[in-house]
Design goal:
heterodimer, A: mainly alpha, Methane Monooxygenase Hydroxylase, Chain G, domain 1, Ribosomal Protein L9, domain 1, 2 domains, 6 helices, B: alpha+beta, 3-stranded antiparallel β-sheet, 8 helices, 12% strand, elongated
């Protein structure tokens, strides 16, 4: 029964400096945690998500050829289920944010395009956001037409609370983070050593998070 | 975060097992595991160890720290120290629960271990509660939480972050009223914010 299951991983890339599959999983795990706790939507990781999904499909196809009496099939299946959960849960969290903050997100995406910055949404998510916005608009127009001023747009923008408190773990030594503690004066400066954990408000560290110097937990 | 989700992260932790079967290396997406030789210890992720254990395909070798003497020592340190002591494992609570729950026959003095782990957890929780209390009273807006494990941090969510969010709002509004900046925009902002942590 040893020879029944010979499963090789797809050769992901020939070049040496590409991420290994293990590292890709780690990237998504970190992205999952970040997306879970960050109040706003974060830059997308579509390339890695798609490579991982490709691996999952590849593995699933191979598994179909394996007899179900092989006990190793169960283990492969379990790993697949874990990975699928990770990826789908990650994507679902992003969609949830898009549905909640669509007006703001679309506005920010537009500003990013104007400034030639990398978009935070991938093309599919962007399309979803636009369609979602359109259907919300249509819906309100059709049922709320008798109610004046309800579509007063500027006041209706739902935005995340970017000052919300989060817990982070630092990946390097970082000096001089300004803590916005809500008082106008005397903002404290703090230093982080690699591996230290701290409870702090999101606004103070948003840029560090997007650089990948810290991650949320 | 759900306790189930914390468990999901903890299940990645590697652990030693003694398999009772022979098998070649398995090529999982997350890395190669094995080869398995009957009665020769090998390292696998915890989720796989539990799976194999349930099918009676292996014995689990408990991690070094899952031991009455070591844990008693940790407990004493935790008692004597005012701050949080570094735990022997990042996920001690989940690991102990999974291993003791599924492989009790592989571990000596299970009941004693269970009691000590529970004691350690209780001591840490009471420290956590008093430091949260202090933090709110001082309305400090950041805190070092080194040595807290994921499960412990999760136990103060969402209550502590949300409470601090509210304090922050009150502070900024007060600042607006005393005539510094952006009075109304802060008010409308705080009305429409949605908190996203759960």
């Amino acid at each position: 029964m040893d020879d029944t299951l010979e499963i090789d991983n797809l050769a992901v890339s020939e070049s040496e400096d590409e991420l290994s599959l293990e590292q890709m999983i780690e990237v998504i795990e970190e992205a999952w945690l970040n997306e879970k706790f960050a109040p706003e939507i974060l830059p997308h990781k579509t390339e890695i998500v798609e490579l991982l999904l490709g691996q999952i499909t590849h593995m699933e196809e191979q598994l179909q050829q394996v007899s179900s009496t092989d006990f190793k099939k169960g283990i492969h299946q379990m790993e697949l289920d874990r990975l699928k959960y990770l990826v789908t849960s990650y994507l679902r969290m992003r969609l949830e944010k898009i549905e909640t903050f669509f007006t703001l997100i679309l506005k920010q995406e537009q500003q990013r395009t104007e400034k030639n910055e990398e978009p935070y949404l991938n093309p599919n998510e962007f399309e979803f956001a636009q369609e979602y916005e359109q259907s919300i608009k249509d819906h309100f127009e059709s049922i709320m037409s008798f109610c004046p001023n309800v579509m007063d747009t500027e006041a209706q923008i739902i935005s995340p609370n970017v000052n919300s408190m989060i817990i982070l773990k630092s990946k390097k030594n970082i000096e001089g983070i300004t803590v916005d503690d809500g008082n106008a004066e005397n903002n404290d400066l703090i230093d982080l050593t690699s591996g230290s954990q701290i409870l702090i408000n999101y606004n103070s560290i948003a840029s560090l998070l997007k650089n990948g110097d810290v991650h949320l937990i | 975060m759900d306790p189930d989700e914390v468990e999901f992260w903890a299940e990645k932790t590697p652990i030693q097992i003694i398999p009772s079967f022979n098998s070649q290396t398995m090529f999982l997406i997350g890395g190669d595991i094995g080869p398995f030789r009957a009665s020769i210890p090998t390292r696998v992720p915890l989720w796989m160890a539990i799976h194999l254990k349930k099918q009676q395909q292996c014995k689990i070798i408990p991690p070094d720290w899952l031991d009455v003497e070591i844990l008693t020592n940790v407990k004493e340190q935790e008692k004597d120290n005012k701050s949080f002591v570094k735990m022997p494992s990042e996920h001690y609570m989940v690991e102990a629960k999974l291993i003791l729950g599924n492989a009790a026959d592989d571990i000596p003095r299970v009941d004693e271990i269970r009691t000590i782990i529970k004691d350690i957890w209780d001591i840490r929780m009471s420290k956590l509660r008093s430091s949260m209390d202090l933090m709110i009273k001082n309305s400090s807006m950041y805190a070092a939480v080194d040595n807290l494990t994921l499960m412990e941090m999760n136990s103060i969510r969402p209550i502590l972050p949300n409470a601090l969010d509210q304090i922050y709002r009150m502070k900024t509004i007060k600042r607006g009223l005393t005539g510094r900046t952006q009075g109304t925009s802060i008010l409308s902002h705080s009305k429409s914010t949605v908190s996203f942590n759960s």
